[in-house]
Design brief:
With 67 residues, the chain is mainly alpha-helical. It has three helices and no strands.
Length: 67
Amino acid sequence: MFIYDKALQYPVKIQNTNPRLASIIISQYGGPDGELGASLRYLSQRYSMPTPELKGLLTDIGTEASV
């Protein structure tokens, strides 16, 4: 058994934009081993989970990974 607390690990406060950093981050999303691929695998696996808590956990992991 485990305790699930839905909270961000670090608070996010964006004050200004940085296009160069954004292009580096976007490059990490592509490809089969990128973050987007991992996020989509979590989101598709949630449909086979037996309990609502586990479905919610995979949904949150998938959405946090894609952010």
